[in-house]
Design a protein that fits this description.
The protein is an alpha/beta fold. The longest helix has 15 residues, at 243-257. The chain starts with a strand and ends with a strand. The chain is 20% helix and 28% strand. The strands form three sheets. A seven-stranded mixed beta sheet has the order 1-2-3-4-5-8-9. Bound molecules: zinc ion. Zinc ion binds at residues 121, 123-124, 222, 268.
Length: 292
């Protein structure tokens, strides 16, 4: 299930990869958890969200393509191709799958009006640029890239950090090309698309809220990585900038949307990635929409 209608908005998942890489080992990913913690959840996580053979979590790397009556928007831009990365699966890839899937959804890069990044980690900025004649150029030449100023300013001080691997090839080139609009974390593009502050995973992480004709959705970014965190909102992911703030943000987000009809588009969840949050006991349950 790759496309949904949300009022007048057409929403597409543009999947780059969906895999259970060894890098997504549950305890490596959530360093405060134990094998016993995961044993409680294994039965329902497998096979969709946890590979039954390797035990690794299944994570999707994807963008959300948002087509309103006025704008074509790409939210997050995956890992990208030809980029030197420390993670083997992400290093110097050349599949072209992202652009193929964007084309399959009916959009050429030139037609994109806005690119929004929930945060500036390497798996959310990759296709901001592509290699042309040995230079990194904006993949979406006519788009305005919407960046949080505060998020950008933080990462500008973190050169050389692994979490910041995309900086030189996927962030700076769009700034230098003059394609960026700097915003605060409550920026509204119009009355159908706006940012929602969800800090913690990174200093000024945002989610993207969509509303059209009474229907609503929210694109999470990385405030959640696995549906297990709905039942265990205190589980902090290893790359969280401020784990306590991330926990607070996650719980507040789940409380805000739990039991509502808002479609939650969970960026890294396995297919179909979107669904509803339901209250369950003192925590929550992610009910995937339809079938994968
Ligand atoms: Zn991510």
């Amino acid at each position: 299930m790759l496309q949904r209608q949300l009022g007048h908005i057409t929403l597409d998942r543009i999947v780059e990869t969906e895999s259970a890489d060894p890098f997504f080992d549950p305890i490596g990913f959530f360093p405060e958890t134990t094998p016993e913690d995961w044993a409680r959840h294994k039965a329902w996580l497998q096979p969709r969200a946890m590979d039954p053979v390797s035990g690794a979590l299944v994570l999707t790397i994807q963008s959300f393509l948002v087509r309103t009556r006025h704008h074509t928007i790409v939210v997050d831009t995956c890992v990208g191709d030809q980029k030197p990365r420390s993670m083997p699966r992400w290093n110097m890839t050349s599949s072209g799958r992202f652009l193929e899937n964007l084309t399959a959804a009916g959009v050429q890069p030139e037609q994109v009006d806005y690119v929004m990044c929930t945060h500036l980690h390497r798996d959310h900025v990759g296709w901001n640029t592509r290699l042309r004649d040995g230079r990194w150029v904006p993949t979406f030449p006519n788009a305005t890239y919407v960046f949080s100023r505060k998020e950008y300013d933080y990462w500008a001080t973190q050169s050389g950090q692994r979490a910041n691997e995309g900086w030189a090839d996927s962030v700076l080139p769009v700034v230098e090309a003059g394609r960026v609009t700097w915003v605060t974390n409550d920026y509204a593009l119009d009355d159908e698309v706006w940012l929602e502050p969800t800090p913690g995973h990174t200093p000024d992480h945002v989610s993207v809220h969509l509303r059209s004709n009474g229907a609503e959705a929210v694109i999470t970014g990385d405030l959640l990585h696995t549906p297990a965190q709905c039942l265990e909102p205190t589980w902090a992911m290893r790359a969280d900038f401020d784990p306590d703030l991330a926990r607070k943000t996650r719980r507040a987000f789940l409380e805000r949307y739990g039991g509502t009809d808002v479609l939650v588009c969970a960026t890294h969840f396995p297919s179909p990635s979107w669904g509803r949050v339901l209250p369950r006991g003192d925590a929550f349950w992610f009910e995937f929409a339809g079938s994968a």
